[in-house]
Amino acid sequence: QVQLVESGGGLVQDGGSLRLACAASGRTASSYHMGWFRQAPGKEREFVAAINSSGRTTYYANSVKGHFTISRDNAKNTVYLQMNSLKPEDTAVYYCATSGRLTNRQDEYDYWGQGTQVTVSS
């Protein structure tokens, strides 16, 4: 079993930055590939970014490529999402999740955090 706790969300102005963190508990947490997803009001949850277990390979949705960066610190069992040049359309609840594969498919993620709200004001 893996438990995930997201933090770092909040209110930021258009063009601002935030860094989200996802702390994982469990002895094998560092062996999982990790992903970030988001769900905006009235929309389906969508893939944002993923990182493999070693941290050497990353994968991004086209909508965030170039202004979001995913990283991880396995010594701290934590995955980060650095979000720069935020726009109002980035407003959503952001979730982290674990998977046995490096994938953008939600159905291949096993454990999910409770989410953290990111609001970008115009």
What does this structure look like?
- With 122 residues, this protein is mainly β.
- The chain has strands at 3-7, 10-13, 18-25, 33-39, 46-51, 58-60, 68-73, 78-83, 92-99, 109-112, 116-121.
- Strands 2, 4, 5, 6, 9, 10 and 11 form a seven-stranded mixed sheet that branches. The protein has a four-stranded antiparallel sheet with strand order 1-3-8-7, with no helix packed on it.
- A hairpin with a 4-residue loop joins strand 7 (68-73) and strand 8 (78-83).
Keywords:
4-stranded antiparallel sheet, single chain, mainly beta, 122 residues
Element pattern in H and E: EEEEEEEEEEE
Assess the beta-strand content as a share of residues: over 45%
Mean pLDDT across the residues is 95
Task: Tally the beta strands.
Answer: 11
| Share of helix, binned | under 10%
Q: What value does the Rg take, in angstroms?
A: 13 Å
Going by helix content, strand content and strand pairing, the class is mainly beta
Uncertain spans: none
State the separation between the terminal residues, measured CA to CA: 40 Å
Backbone shape: globular
How are the secondary structure elements laid out?
Elements: E1 3-7, E2 10-13, E3 18-25, E4 33-39, E5 46-51, E6 58-60, E7 68-73, E8 78-83, E9 92-99, E10 109-112, E11 116-121
Parallel strand pairs: 2-11
Antiparallel strand pairs: 1-3, 3-8, 4-5, 4-9, 5-6, 7-8, 9-10, 9-11
